[in-house]
Amino acid sequence: MEELNERYQEVLYYIIEEYIVTASPVGSKFIAGKCSLNLSPASIRNIMASLEEKGYIYQPYFSAGRVPTSSGYKFYINSILKTKKISKQQKADMRSSFNISGKDIKKILWQAINLLSEISHYMPIVLAPERTYANLLHIEFIKLDKLNILVIMVFEGGFVENKIISADRDYKQIELSKYSIKLNEIINGHNIDELKDIIIEDIDKERESFFSLLNGIIFNFDLVKNEIDNENDYLFIGSRMNLFDEPEFSNYEKIKSLIKAFEDKRTIIKLLELTKRKEGIHIFIGSDTEWSDINGLSVITASYRSKKGFAGGSIGLIGPSRMNYALAIPTVNYIAKLLCDII
Amino acid sequence: MEELNERYQEVLYYIIEEYIVTASPVGSKFIAGKCSLNLSPASIRNIMASLEEKGYIYQPYFSAGRVPTSSGYKFYINSILKTKKISKQQKADMRSSFNISGKDIKKILWQAINLLSEISHYMPIVLAPERTYANLLHIEFIKLDKLNILVIMVFEGGFVENKIISADRDYKQIELSKYSIKLNEIINGHNIDELKDIIIEDIDKERESFFSLLNGIIFNFDLVKNEIDNENDYLFIGSRMNLFDEPEFSNYEKIKSLIKAFEDKRTIIKLLELTKRKEGIHIFIGSDTEWSDINGLSVITASYRSKKGFAGGSIGLIGPSRMNYALAIPTVNYIAKLLCDII
DNA sequence: AATTAGCACTCAATATTAGTGAGTGCTAAT
DNA sequence: ATTAGCACTCACTAATATTGAGTGCTAATT
Questions:
Q1: CA–CA separation, B121 and B200 (whole Å)
Q2: Per-residue pLDDT tens for B194-253?
Q3: Residue A278 lies in a domain
Q4: Which of strand D's nucleotides are less than 7 A from any protein C-beta?
Q5: Residue B1 covered by a domain
């Protein structure tokens, strides 16, 4: 990232701040009025011309005002932006808006989404805790009928995964409970990869009696690992309306391409998975990602992680590139922190 | 519903069939060419004028062609329409596109949604089986940490509900398992309302030992009953794209009002709940419902129900009022039947 | 009496044109 | 180095004209 002298930075700053509010190209006259430098519009125009040469802003058409480019936003975020501090009062409000009692993790994640939605007016997304590296707490077999057995796997933090396996014979529930207990003895503190090995090796002695169940479980471990298979339980998407109210999406074609892009959750999942192991805030701007489907969008993400274990996921906020970063960044950050505490 | 002589019916029929395809007003010349009656456009116009008087069609503006009204569609569906029979081959295809092994009910319902989406190109919706009247199969307590206990409730058909309750003291997992077993002994074949009474009355003798757990369960029974609380696990909505591709929603305002209407799932839930106890197909046309949010939509619904028990829900298809009823109705019907078999 | 050809009329949709104004780049004066 | 002055660009808006599919009505036809 190139250096910019102070005068240039100030002009870029005001262009972006204004564009964030109005969503229309910003002209030299406006900047001249706003700027503390007390320069005439003509001078500002010179500065703008060279900011454009450096690639930070551009003109949508000859003789329009200037609009920030992706690198413009990037520079702004990295070098100019001062994020707002969240007041203690606001922090307390956010914390207390989580109503935990009687709620499983999924509900809590939805609460996070709604909170983000209310505060930011952009589109929140949440990736549920990954199950691959999370420790299993409990496995239970429940007989549904002659041929079908429900396997319930509870992961640390309270995330539950259900799978149905078909039995090789008609197990009695009592029998199943016995096997549940046996498995639960070896489960403690292992993730599914480790358990797979343990089951394959250690249970050999008497495994004939419930061989098909064990096989079923191992098979389902693989299903659980492939989180994409679980899309609807893995990625939660908040209200789209806020985004669609933004002026850049106020035409038919754009709104349709947006809906299409969000309907296939896999691209968003990929994006969030990039960051779920990493600390801190990550920001994707415009066409930075391979996610070329949609230009003009930015994504702010932060990961969360339970204190004791390895289970973690990430939360994010999708908005127009001209989003209010000063507010959005600390909000995403703080809600991720809250989730760490709660889970 | 008034009687219509054959000639009138034929004209109405062709107007609707054509409008279903083109989505634009149908003129007399076209009908004259299509009709087996061999009448001139002028005669058709006379017939159209009196169909309009009866309220089956209308002109969007003076000197446009005719468009069916809600009552027009209703008459068409009840008296003229001959639904397509689904061939054995198609039925077999549909059946085999369900991949049941290793899938819990939720996944199967999603498969139903995807199937409906592929076949119909409208927007499928599915209401998960109601839990209030479904029998409980299994209850399990799992210790998450000192203060939190996960309660897993498995309903017939394999639907699983998780709730977290906070404990009054630090239960050991072994202890919790004991209580699980005790509860499971009395559970069999009762729904949550019945169980509530049983728990309150019958377990009195030694309930002091896990009094708070029982209380927690009873409280959660009430939560489970209030299915609206579970929106995201109760109503599943399929791909919206198909609907948005329909020409009547090809402008910004309409598409936005549609999105808004679907974002609040409660209206759709109410609609589906009206029919989930009733046999057979139900069709809501245009502004028939109190669901005045959106005109120009129709909803086809059918209920499904597991054979043994009382647990049932419904599936539906939302499309423009000018939807292809001949195909959509038997498809919804057959998929509902398939669900009955599978669950 | 039922049907139809003929015709004037309506009105959405599309294309055409003109006018407006915010904003620019360049040049010459400060 | 800065700025006032000016001609120029181009999206946006409004006003106007054109087109054509479709109608209702009347009078002629079967």
A1: 50
A2: 888 877 776 656 656 666 667 777 777 777 776 666 678 889 999 998 898 888 888 888
A3: yes
A4: 2-5, 8-11, 21-26
A5: no
